[in-house]
From TrEMBL:
GO molecular function, one term: protein C-terminal S-isoprenylcysteine carboxyl O-methyltransferase activity
Protein name: Isoprenylcysteine carboxyl methyltransferase (ICMT) family protein
Membrane topology per record: Multi-pass membrane protein
Entry-linked InterPro entries: ICMT_MeTrfase (IPR007269), Metal_cation-efflux_comp (IPR052527)
Record's signal peptide: none
GO biological process, one term: methylation
UniProt keyword terms in alphabetical order: Membrane, Methyltransferase, Transferase, Transmembrane, Transmembrane helix
GO cellular component annotations of the record: membrane
UniProt-annotated location(s): Membrane
Length: 186
């Protein structure tokens, strides 16, 4: 039970800090000519993430705080995934956001995990939405939010890539990178 509360609390605090960073970055980007696209789906994205944590909490409590027998491996994977998350966030710097905000004419980020794939942050979210529920045997949460997230990302990535391609050299820079799987850097 304590392990679940510790992990859950860490993740909630992490998300709140990230929202603060995103808001600060949003203000900076908008003050410097940023354009937000896809804003109509953002409330659904927020609702999905809130619902994920509510669903996780509910399922874990109802199942009696069961921890997976593979917890050491899953916890290690979660820690590695968090490292990749921070690598992606710091690589984007002021351009990282939970919203889709584009700076017309800005250089496309090619450092950090973006040297290897187009969407490392989304790859992290996909992995998190699998690892976290599996860590606590929350199989309903795992399946439901993996499907919901896949639907959300299929829309969000299309909108983001179209916007980036319209306002930057994204299409040219990222043409040889896969969306979610690493590829040897050029």
């Amino acid at each position: 039970m304590i392990f679940f509360y510790a992990v859950f609390t860490f993740l909630i605090i992490q998300r709140l800090i990230e929202l603060w960073i995103a808001r600060r970055n949003q203000q900076w980007m908008m003050a410097h000519g940023g354009i937000e696209i896809g804003a109509e789906h953002y409330p659904l994205l927020v609702l999905m993430h809130i619902s994920f944590f509510a669903g996780l909490w509910t399922e874990v409590v109802l199942r009696g705080y069961a921890i997976s027998s593979a917890w050491p491996i899953l916890l290690a994977a979660l820690i590695i995934v968090q490292g990749i998350r921070y690598w992606a966030i710091t690589s984007l710097g002021r351009f990282w956001n939970t919203r889709i905000i584009i700076m017309p004419g800005a250089d496309v980020v090619r450092r950090g995990p973006y040297r290897l794939l187009r969407h490392p942050n989304y790859a992290v979210v996909i992995l998190e939405l699998a690892i976290i529920p599996l860590l606590f045997n929350a199989y309903i949460t795992f399946v439901a939010f993996s499907v919901i997230n896949a639907l959300m990302l299929s829309y969000r990535i299309r909108v983001e890539e179209e916007g980036l391609s319209s306002y930057t050299t994204y299409a040219t820079v990222m043409q040889n990178r896969l969306r979610f799987l690493p590829k040897k850097p050029e």
